[in-house]
Amino acid sequence: xxxxxxxxxxxxxxxxxxxxxxxxxxxxxxxxxxxxxxxxxxxxxxxxxxxxxxxxxxxxxxxxxxxxxxxxxxxxxxxxxxxxxxxxxxxxxxxxxxxxxxxxxxxxxxxxxxxxxxxxxxxxxxxxxxxxxxxxxxxxxxxxxxxxxxxxxxxxxxxxxxxxxxxxxxxxxxxxxxxxxxxxxxxxxxxxxxxxxxxxxxxxxxxxxxxxxxxxxxxxxxxxxxxxxxxxxxxxxxxxxxxxxxxxxxxxxxxxxxxxxxxxxxxxxxxxxxxxxxxxxxxxxxxxxxxxxxxxxxxxxxxxxxx
Length: 307
Description:
By secondary structure, this protein is of the alpha/beta class. The protein folds into two domains: 2-159, 3-Layer(aba) Sandwich (Rossmann fold); 186-306, Riboflavin kinase-like (Elongation Factor Tu (Ef-tu), domain 3), CATH 2.40.30.30. The protein is built from ten helices and 14 strands. A six-stranded parallel sheet has the order 1-4-3-2-5-6, sandwiched between helices. The protein has a six-stranded antiparallel barrel with strand order 9-10-13-12-11-14. Helix 7 (164-172) packs antiparallel against helix 8. The protein starts with a strand and ends with a helix.
């Protein structure tokens, strides 16, 4: 997959492609269905499959949200879309000026001037242009006679619609198991191992302290995880939150302990996959009490993977 930062910077001819447009936040099951159709129709038309997305998230730029709501970082989203075997991913910078484009201007000056798609494949809730004034009917009206619009119905799982907002809600509740089913893959966080408090060694349970930046995270707690290192998966237990056992006002950390693993991970890139939340973060009265809790957590992890 070729990645282009800004549609004005595309150096190859992608005109007459099959195009889909969206934020694709989380690259969930609904998005995967859209990408499947894009691939199918591109192959049938013997043309390129193209996905147009935006960065940063429009809600952040327009200050409709006070927090970073992206389920994945940009790098993670690129990797997930690459799995879908799309030929070209175009990442359009989303600015306040860009948000003021009227639907017809966005269509003519960007979509048709730079892509002139044979087929648009869009989700059921597609909207575009200033204040989301453009909708599916607007798109159909603006299209030329030789262009086609295919609308993908809302994807449902167990009777309810799959959406990025539903996945965010599940993650904030710590329900990573349901989020996993809606995403079609595990929720994961990627980052590098950074210096920590070194308390893990004292507790005889070495942990890797993972950097995570400004991003959406699940509810604080202790989780069963897979840690991905050099394309191998290691059963792990991880804690996300403020370790109040050692004082108030400490920063939030994401620490993982890889079971039966003895390599030095400092400064190494890791991906941690959240599999199941097993308890809340808790303030312990002593290090001995904390050690007993960690031992119990590790036992739960071993039993989980034995199944």
